[in-house]
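Now for our target.
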Amino acid sequence: MFSVAAIVAIITGSQVLAECDIKSGTGLALIGHAYLSLPVQDAHQCYEKCKSDEPKCRSLNYYGDSKFCELNNVTRTSHPGDLKENPVSVYFESRYRVTTGSQRSVAASSCQDILQRGDSTGNGFYWLDSNSTEDPYVTFCNMTSGGDTSASFDLIFKDRNTSNYVELETSFPNLSSFTVCLWFKSMERQLLFLSYATEPFTDAIMMFLSSTGLFRFLVMNEQTHGHTGTFEDKTWHHLCGTWANHDGVVRLFIDGDCKLTSDRTIHGVIPGTGKLILGQDQDIMGGAFVYQQSFVGEMSHLYIWNTDLGTSVISTLSMHCKEHPYPGYIMKWSDFTEAGIHGNITKRNNSRCLTAQDMLP
């Protein structure tokens, strides 16, 4: 019977040890997860069998006394309780193995799947293949929250129609300053992004882009406008608006760049109890929508803060499309529930919103 020292010698002689990560170990075997068992000449051949069957093969057990190889479909990270002592076995994982979700060819079924396989590299963008009707796609996985994707979704406004809107009754502090940010993608030129109405202000906050590229940004019924161009390129864009009572200045940012600054100051307080509508302009609170102004396209990750975040923060926010982009928000994307969705709007789980630099191989 082989000793642990003999097994180490076998591994070292076959040069597999150099390709094993620190999760590998002699005198150990992962029990109950072998999808293929076969005789081999040595440990190196066992390793090559596993390597050639990636990504299905996540780890292996090699038994030195019988020269037997087991290929496992999980690792010790996801099933630590199944790692058992065995004096004649070696368990190892290749440090070079392709990790689940890192490439299109090894797309995971979910963010939780990546965690369970022990392939998470932390919060970031991963390839998923969550259904049979869509090609693999890239999405942001919040691994800190255990791969929870409840805040990761897109709203797809399928046509221009006054019956298509998303409604939220608000209840946050009165606003003496704010930042509102969202991501959008469209093939249309004229777009109404959002309107926030309160009792004294029908347009407490309103963002509208005309077909000529004229952007109208209203705060407490006062309008700041200017030409920003149109964005019908089917590409995700980042939109932010800010205002603060202390200086009265209104600013509009698109893709991190300041496109509009008010030429007059606006002072006052915006009530925190009102109605927020995505995709329509409220000419009266909660209604009187105009067909030509309705939003068509996709929208994601809308957040509101009760402070002016400033240019540098907004520039950073525009670099990555993800949930919970900056702390301190008073309204988050997941506040928009199924109950508030009206008309021909689809909620797509696992957001497809990403920038060019978020794309993976």
About this structure: Residues 175 and 270 are 5 Å apart (CA to CA). The first strand starts at residue 25 and ends at 30. The chain is about 10% helix and 35% strand.
